[in-house]
């Protein structure tokens, strides 16, 4: 089992499985890159409407194919139908938001459920017509990598790589769009066309992801990788690369797992892998992860409390409770009185507070954004000559 | 049954005539931080009993945050807020609030009267419908701001100034002792400005305390008795005449009234 | 084509009743999602309950409704808490937070279903997605007279009884807490300063939506639930400016969609000469979509065409005034 896993992961389990795994990884990579900008444009869930809206198009395309006498299911035709009705769904969302008082969430919810409902009606119609070959249609709903033929996997990989490359080429423009669309428009960027390009890329990723991941879960490829990457960095270029990497990793591991366990639907496995990466990022990423932020906030609170308690002790106000225990553990307090070390710390804290106060009073416009002002030692944040100047003014 | 949440307790109000009761608002060592950046820093402030108080400072100085922290709407890093000598959570019925106009969805399917009646919910309590008496009180509040004719209008059909007056009427309907108002004069027409001012003066005459975030330096002295100058920390507070000096304003708005230290080596 | 009273009452009537009750309950609670701009919460919750349903089924080992309901409700509550946690603690916009949580939970549910299948138990994702409206049968009636027979009503299928109870619960809660639901939706900050727990009402609405959705799933499937939570309230929103009217109207539109959709699915093909009926849940969703589209186009004050006409009149008046000045 483990040998098998390693062989698939390293693309040595036969050409077919290698192509499927590589194709799925490329899909994840494209989802991460395109999704980054969807996330920043606050459009994450629009792609959910898009993916659900593909179903009626697939069904209609199947009916047309049957009417034209095409054998079985013709994939290009089905995907063309998916694109057509997906785009129609997107346009409907946009029309509802622009032309009526409905908000985007309602428009998305209405479009995705009504279009999907129509798709279900058409599927039930196809079932009654007994055309043959309709069994494959349902794989679009939950996805199936096992069904992927070699040629299809190669096509998916190439298209996904193309989508990612387009994002790389348009990076500067998309960054302007994501950061401040109003400003970008004033600067002469073609904002409407960029938005269109972004939605076009989202449509591409969705449609080529239909077969692998299924239309219910394909939205996860666009949302989870950038959301997970967000915890690791505040820089857009790093964010995009991290999202692409997380997406590719999810696709790669997910496709491998589902090759090992062919009973499990591939889409669900890929999404669970991505979800696991998200969870790890959410909890443990050093930049914005829960643990890191919690520790930072806790330290901030503790420093505030400690500084206040020390200043109080210096002024003769006693401290009790857990704070007294903490000061004791730090060696600042013994038998309710400041130790010599504590006295030094209290005086330093008091000086720090006064200098910060003076600084905020005299130069409010110069306050550095990155510092925990008032808590961080002022000598480490401000240049020495500024500190000396403040000392002259603040300390008697 | 009244809305008592988290801290049930009696509402204590000092004898109205007493000149030295607990202050309407007393803030001690209040620090609020959004993520890493402190927005309020060691704020100490005690509001005088009765009177109109303006909170003045540049954008991003934490004026709205101060009000929200006083109302318990944003978490505090440190500090205490007392209203008439008791923690703010116990004194909700004594507090009225006028948020910024942008804070709600004006497309919401309610009429002006419905919105004003919301100010009475604290007095109505769970399960009971809005009675005729409360509706009349709401209508009366609308009259006081000159909006009685618009009572049945959907709020989205009102102009910005009219919407502001509806919010003000809602605060009046709360019949509070201490009012917090977030920029009630922002972006309103002349008629609304007069109406708001009249309401403030009525409240003042009735012995209420009103704390207003205010952005227009031109009118502070004309409209208000007291001023709290702040920029993340409290710069100064007191009667307008003594506090609204060029020197203190300069320090509030960070117009660099003091020379920056110059590195000797950097000078040519 | 002929349809005997007995056939109609045994096959179509209970299904129709279930659809009507499900649509009415969903439409009523959906109003608060639409007004809170949390329309996608219905979507998120109805996907996220899948692992709960499967877990309830696997733990209890039966297809009884109760364990599945309990599991689903637990999963819904978990998803609500997780979405809020990811949104607040992770500082992600709510759409992305929902997208992450519901796709992962749904994927977990799909994998769990396969595990169940491996153990030789048949539980189908399809029935959660599309429901099984067509399998709700009321065997008691023999003719129209049975509608007056209490004994026959007592034999009403369990799904219908559950849905009726949920509908009554929704109406009762909305009536009882109308004030608080309104203020916490419109201005949560003011609600908090008045001592009304706005956060609790947020979770309360999510849980009520979840309970309604779960009760409706079995009968009509998750897709129809999402459509019913959004489309009728959204349509009502375009037709009125009064909350009370909106609440009643949305229920009425939901019922209309249920009747029209069911009728089209069950009898449409027969009228056109086909033999089989179409997916009723899908057709009801389509009907609700048509109602929304009509409201968006032809709504008197907020419809697109109505607004355009009003604008045209305004322009016309302007032109007349301009002419008046120039002459």
UniProtKB/TrEMBL annotation, chain A:
Q: Which residues cross the membrane?
A: 18-40, 52-71, 77-97, 109-129, 149-171, 198-224, 236-261, 267-291
**Entry's InterPro entries?**
ABC_BtuC-like (IPR037294), ABC_TroCD (IPR001626)
Query: What Pfam family is a match for this entry?
Result: ABC-3
- Does the keyword field hold Ubl conjugation? no
Keywords in alphabetical order: Cell membrane, Membrane, Transmembrane, Transmembrane helix, Transport
**Subcellular localization:** Cell membrane
Annotated membrane topology is:
Multi-pass membrane protein
Report the sequence similarity comment from the record.
Belongs to the ABC-3 integral membrane protein family.
From the Swiss-Prot or TrEMBL record, give the protein name: Manganese/zinc/iron transport system permease protein
Automatic annotation (TrEMBL), chain B:
Q: Which residues form the signal peptide?
A: none
**Stretches assigned to the ABC transporter domain:** 25-257
Question: What Pfam families does UniProt report for this protein, alphabetically?
Answer: ABC_tran (PF00005)
Q: A single Gene Ontology molecular function, please?
A: ATP binding
Keywords annotated in UniProt = ATP-binding, Ion transport, Nucleotide-binding, Transport, Zinc, Zinc transport
Q: Which family does it belong to?
A: Belongs to the ABC transporter superfamily.
Protein name from the UniProt record: Manganese/zinc/iron transport system ATP-binding protein
Q: Organism, per UniProt?
A: Azospirillum rugosum
Automatic annotation (TrEMBL), chain C:
Q: Which residues cross the membrane?
A: 13-34, 41-60, 66-83, 95-113, 160-177, 189-214, 220-240, 247-272, 278-299
Q: Which domain of life is it from?
A: Bacteria
* InterPro entries from the UniProt entry: ABC_BtuC-like (IPR037294), ABC_TroCD (IPR001626)
Query: Cross-referenced SUPFAM superfamilies, in alphabetical order?
Result: ABC transporter involved in vitamin B12 uptake, BtuC
Q: Which UniProt keywords apply?
A: Cell membrane, Membrane, Transmembrane, Transmembrane helix, Transport
The way this protein sits in the membrane is described as: Multi-pass membrane protein
Where does the record say this protein resides?
Cell membrane
What family is reported? Answer: Belongs to the ABC-3 integral membrane protein family.
Q: What is this protein called?
A: Manganese/zinc/iron transport system permease protein
Instruction: Please give the organism.
Output: Azospirillum rugosum
Per the UniProt record, the lineage of the source organism begins with: Bacteria, Pseudomonadati, Pseudomonadota, Alphaproteobacteria, Rhodospirillales
């Amino acid at each position: 089992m483990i040998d098998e896993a390693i062989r698939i992961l390293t693309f040595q389990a036969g050409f077919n499985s290698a192509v499927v795994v590589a194709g799925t990884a490329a899909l994840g990579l494209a989802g991460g890159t395109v999704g980054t900008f969807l996330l920043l444009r606050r459009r994450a869930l629009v792609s959910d409407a898009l993916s659900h809206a593909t179903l009626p198009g697939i069904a209609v395309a199947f009916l047309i194919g049957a009417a034209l006498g095409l054998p079985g299911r013709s994939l290009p035709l089905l995907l063309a139908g998916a694109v057509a009705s997906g785009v129609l769904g997107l346009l409907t969302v946009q029309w509802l938001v622009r032309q009526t008082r409905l908000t985007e969430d309602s428009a998305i919810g209405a479009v995705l459920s009504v279009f999907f409902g129509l798709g279900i009606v058409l599927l039930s119609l196809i079932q009654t017509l007994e055309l043959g070959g309709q069994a494959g249609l349902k794989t679009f709903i939950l996805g199936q990598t096992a069904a992927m033929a070699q040629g299809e996997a190669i096509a998916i990989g190439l298209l996904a790589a193309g989508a990612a490359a387009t994002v790389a080429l348009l990076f500067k423009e998309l960054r302007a769009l994501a950061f401040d669309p109003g400003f970008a428009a004033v600067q002469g960027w073609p904002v409407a066309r960029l938005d269109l390009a972004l939605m076009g890329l989202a449509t591409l990723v969705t449609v080529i992801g239909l077969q692998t991941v299924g239309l219910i879960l394909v939205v996860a490829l666009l949302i989870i990788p950038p959301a997970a990457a967000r915890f690791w960095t505040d820089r857009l270029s790093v964010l995009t690369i991290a999202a692409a990497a997380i997406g590719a990793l999810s696709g790669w591991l997910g496709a491998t797992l589902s090759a090992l366990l062919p009973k499990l639907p591939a889409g669900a496995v890929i999404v669970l892998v991505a979800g696991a990466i998200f969870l790890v990022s959410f909890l443990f990423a050093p930049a914005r992860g829960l643990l890191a932020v919690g520790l930072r906030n806790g330290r901030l609170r503790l420093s505030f409390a400690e500084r206040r308690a020390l200043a109080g002790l210096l002024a003769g106000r006693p401290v009790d409770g857990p704070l007294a225990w903490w000061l004791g553990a730090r060696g600042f307090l013994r038998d309710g009185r400041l130790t010599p070390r504590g006295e030094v710390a209290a005086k330093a804290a008091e000086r720090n507070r006064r200098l910060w106060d003076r600084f905020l009073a005299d130069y409010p416009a110069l306050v550095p954004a990155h510092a925990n002002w008032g808590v961080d030692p002022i000598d480490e944040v401000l240049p020495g000559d500024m500190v000396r100047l403040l000392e002259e003014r603040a300390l008697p | 049954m009244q809305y008592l949440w988290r801290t049930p307790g009696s509402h204590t109000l000092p004898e109205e005539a007493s000149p030295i009761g607990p202050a309407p608002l007393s803030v001690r060592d209040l620090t609020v931080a959004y993520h890493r950046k402190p927005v309020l820093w060691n704020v100490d402030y005690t509001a005088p009993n009765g009177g109109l108080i303006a909170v003045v400072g540049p954008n991003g100085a934490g004026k709205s945050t101060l009000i929200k922290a006083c109302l318990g709407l944003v978490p505090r890093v440190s500090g205490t807020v007392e209203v008439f000598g008791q923690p703010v959570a116990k004194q909700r019925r004594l507090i009225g609030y006028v948020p910024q106009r942008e804070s709600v969805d004006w497309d919401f399917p309610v009429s002006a009267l419905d919105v004003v009646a919301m100010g009475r919910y604290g007095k109505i309590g769970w399960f009971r419908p809005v009675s005729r008496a409360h509706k009349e009180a709401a209508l009366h509040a609308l009259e006081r701001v000159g909006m009685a004719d618009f009572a049945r209008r959907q709020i989205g059909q009102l102009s910005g100034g009219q919407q502001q007056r509806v919010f003000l009427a809602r605060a009046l309907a709360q019949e509070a002792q201490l009012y917090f108002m977030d920029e009630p004069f922002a972006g309103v027409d002349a008629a609304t400005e007069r109406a708001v001012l009249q309401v403030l003066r009525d409240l003042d005459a009735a012995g209420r305390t009103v704390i207003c975030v205010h952005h227009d330096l031109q009118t502070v002295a004309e409209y208000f008795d007291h001023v709290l100058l702040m920029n993340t920390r409290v710069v100064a507070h007191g009667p307008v005449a003594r506090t609204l000096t060029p020197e203190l304003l300069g320090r509030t708005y960070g117009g660099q009234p003091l020379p920056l230290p110059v590195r000797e080596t950097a000078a040519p | 084509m002929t349809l005997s009273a007995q056939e109609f009452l045994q096959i179509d009537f209970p299904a129709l009743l279930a659809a009507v009750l499900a649509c009415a309950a969903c439409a009523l609670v959906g109003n608060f999602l639409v007004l809170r701009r949390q329309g996608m919460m219905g979507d998120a919750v109805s996907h996220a309950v899948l692992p709960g349903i499967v877990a309830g089924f696997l733990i209890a080992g039966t297809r009884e409704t109760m364990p599945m309901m309990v599991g689903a409700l637990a999963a819904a509550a978990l998803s609500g808490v997780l979405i809020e946690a990811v949104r607040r603690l992770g500082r992600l916009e709510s759409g992305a937070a929902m997208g992450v949580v519901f796709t992962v939970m749904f994927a977990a549910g799909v994998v769990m279903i396969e595990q169940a299948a491996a153990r030789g138990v048949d539980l189908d994702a399809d029935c959660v997605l599309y429901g099984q409206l067509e399998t709700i049968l009321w065997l008691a009636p023999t003719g129209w007279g049975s509608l007056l027979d209490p004994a026959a009503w007592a034999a009403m299928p369990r799904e219908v009884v559950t849905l009726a109870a949920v509908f009554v619960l929704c109406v009762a809660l909305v009536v009882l807490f109308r004030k608080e639901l309104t203020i916490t939706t419109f201005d949560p900050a003011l609600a908090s300063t008045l001592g009304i727990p706005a956060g609790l009402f947020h979770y309360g609405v999510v849980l009520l939506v979840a309970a309604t959705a779960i009760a409706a799933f079995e009968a009509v499937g998750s897709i129809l639930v999402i459509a019913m939570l959004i489309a009728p309230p959204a349509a009502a929103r375009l037709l009125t400016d009064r909350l009370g009217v909106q609440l009643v109207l949305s229920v009425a539109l939901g019922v209309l969609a249920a009747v029209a959709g069911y009728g089209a699915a069950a009898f449409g093909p027969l009228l056109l000469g086909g033999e089989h009926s179409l997916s009723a849940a899908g057709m009801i969703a389509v009907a609700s979509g048509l109602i929304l589209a009509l409201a968006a186009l032809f709504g008197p004050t907020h419809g697109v065409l109505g607004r355009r006409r009003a604008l045209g009149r305004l322009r016309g008046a302007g032109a007349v005034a301009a002419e008046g000045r120039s002459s």
